[in-house]
Structures are given as structure tokens and as C-alpha cells.
Amino acid sequence: MQKTYYPKPDDVTRDWYVVDAAGENLGRLASRIAQVLIGKSKPEYTPGVDLGDFVIVINCEKVTVTGKKLDQKVYYRHSGYPGGLKAITLRNQLEKFPDRVITSAVWGMIPHNRYGRKLMKKLKVYRGADHPHSAQKPKKLKFE
Predict the structure, then answer these.
(1) Using CA atoms, how far apart are residues 18 and 122, in angstroms rounded to an integer?
(2) What CATH number does residue 41 fall under?
(3) Which of 39, 71, 75, 124 could form a disulfide with 52 if both were Cys (CB 3.0 to 4.6 A apart)?
């Protein structure tokens, strides 16, 4: 009788990937990043086991969207005080904090629990083409 293979934490090899977001569509980029973070791109994927890789996103301010999303998509946050609801459009968010745009898009595509918070620590988003992770020798992530 064959037994089901269950990967142990010591058997997992984590790779580093770099993604250039310049000219990429936000939703398609975020879904591909979420797949790599979760580990669904690996043949030994098992639900509930962290097999994902690290992802570095560069040029996050050059991401594109379709339609009228730049002016109609709104990000909300709350200070916790009465009347403390703040709103900012996608255009303004890309000018001030472009890393938050990609981070929130990826967060919407992974589980919202302890496992998802652990996965988000493996996502590094940077403005511009430079990043401090050259020692990890990241590979370029190919989109298919």
C-alpha cells in the first residue's frame, strides 16, 4: 500500500524570485505572486504546509490598471476613533505609497489567518529598480 507524501519543514527549499512590476496589470501580477507565495507552483504542494518561495517586487509604482480604476478604486483605513474613516484613491496611493497597492492586492488573494500573515512576510515590495536582497541571488520570475 502506498502512503501519501507529506513534506516535512526540513525538506522544503525556498527560492527567491524577483518580479519587475513595470507595465504589469495589478490583478494578474498579484495572483501570480500569491501562487508563488503559497507554493502552488511546486509539484509537492500540500494544503496547510508552507512550501512557498520569497518574492521581491521592484518598480511597484509603474504597475498598470485597466478602465477608470485609477480614480474610482478607493482604499479605506480606520484610525479606531469615531469618525476616523480615511479614504484614498488608487492614483493618490500610487503616488504616496505604491508598495501598499501591491501588498493589499496580494493580501486579498491569500488566506486571512495566521498562515496568510506568515506568507506576507515573504513578500518584499520596493519602489524603483534596486533592492537589498542581491545576496540571496533571486531568479527572475517568468509569467506564462
Answers:
(1) 12
(2) 3.90.1180.10
(3) 39
